[in-house]
Amino acid sequence: MNRIVNIMKMKRITYKLFMITSLILLSFAVLIYLTLYFFLPTFYEQYKTNQLQSGIEGIIGESKNLALKNAIPLLDEYTKENNAIIYLQTKEGTIIYSPSFFIQGNTQPPILTAKTAPIQNAENLNNAFNVTLPIQFLDEDNLMVTVFATFQPIDEASQVLVRFLPFISIIVVVIGLGSAYLYSRFITKPLIYINEGAQKMANLDFSENIVVRSNDELEELSNSLNEMSNNLQQTMLDLQKANEQLKDDIERERKIETKRREFFATVAHELKTPLTVMKGYLEGMIYNIGPYQNRDLYLEKNHKIIEGMEQLVREILSMSKLEQDTFKLQLEEVNLLELLDSITKDLGFFASQKDIRIIKQISPNMNVRTDRDLLEKAFKNIIHNAITYSPHGETVLIEVTELPKENQIQIQVMNTGVIIKEEEIQQLFEPFYRIEKSRNRNTGGSGLGLYIVKQIFESLSITYLMNNTQNGVQFLATIPKGRW
Questions:
Q1: Three-state SS for 396?
Q2: Contacts of the segment 123-128: beta carbons below 8 A, 24+ positions apart
Q3: Which distant-in-sequence residues (6+ apart) come within 8 Å of 400 by Cβ?
Q4: What is the pLDDT of residues 107-132, one digit of tens each?
Q5: Helix, strand or coil for residue 460?
Q6: Could you give the CA distance from residue 337 to residue 360 in angstroms, rounded to a whole number?
Q7: Which residue of 82, 246, 394, 432 shows the fewest CB atoms closer than 10 Å?
Q8: Measuring CA to CA, which residue among 105, 114, 154, 149 is closest to residue 130?
Q9: How many CB atoms lie within 10 A of CB 455?
């Protein structure tokens, strides 16, 4: 369809150029013909008159210094050059020289009457040059020179031009139309090519550039269109990237909003369940129902529930603190041996209850620049989880290795005797996710521990990895040393 439209447009512009060029050429041809027909005779007559007049005046000027016999060649040359008739005569009218005879000395020249004088045989005297002037020679004076030249040839040429007009017209029309057609095709071809390229650009097709090699405005136009095409293409790519980024941001915000709603729903559930249990205990104690008459027992249970809720609230507040934009890290030099010794000492009671050995392989001079409180909280959660989810009699290995080339330190925490399903490893870092689905506080925590670890490590630019090994579950954290 576009091809047909382009062909129609090409025909329109070619037709316009063809008609305009043809009219211009024909107009010039008619103008030239009319100029030749009307002005050429007058111009020729004026030119011929000036030539004849100046020529005879020159002869008259030179004859004063020449004898008649020596001046004859000048007269003959004037006659040949100007296609004129010239003769000399006395004041009495006796011709002593004409191009056909010359008499000098004692010889008596023949007397030519008006009928035998050359000028009397000329026709169409109104369209001719005829002048009689006095002339002197060294040996002759009181003579008159007569010059006659007809302008009839130019009239004949005009008549021939009129008769030849049909043939000239045919030749002019053929040449003019042919030239106009070739000219219009030559001019419109690059224009149509540029138009096709511009239409592709308008349809957002930037696959081809417009190439015109003409060293003129058409080449400049094609280069400008190519530059506009490149700029438009780049702008569209930028807009596309921005649009994709905007879509990603919107999708990410949607996910964040979804997670936030899920988070608050889970928090509400985590708080509602212990509150419901506490309410039941308290009502039972108030009304002295069955076993609830043992108030000391159920007050202790309520106290444990409140401690659990308090711990949950503290974890939520810690997580909220990390997510705030106004949160600032308190950086300082931290000795990892001292930090991990302090953590394992605090968790030693839990390990002893399950007969779990904690093995540490740490060099004394392992220092990093980081936020001590956050790092302590993160590794306390990691080691506590390793102890909590390991069977009785297993081992928790804590190993610290220096990576000098990367200017980093790697900390490994491994608990033996346990394997986690691969599809659940990454979900462990989601809020409130627990492998044990009953959410019993006796078999696990709130499900925020590793999520808080994730938030802390991201704040401290620490990379981490959890995976299964032959011996158990391995947690790797790589900490940049930093500068101090």
A1: strand
A2: 123/150, 123/152, 124/150, 124/152, 127/151, 127/152, 127/155, 128/152
A3: 336, 337, 340, 361, 362, 363, 366, 409, 410, 411, 412
A4: 333 433 333 444 444 444 567 888 88
A5: coil
A6: 9
A7: 246
A8: 149
A9: 21
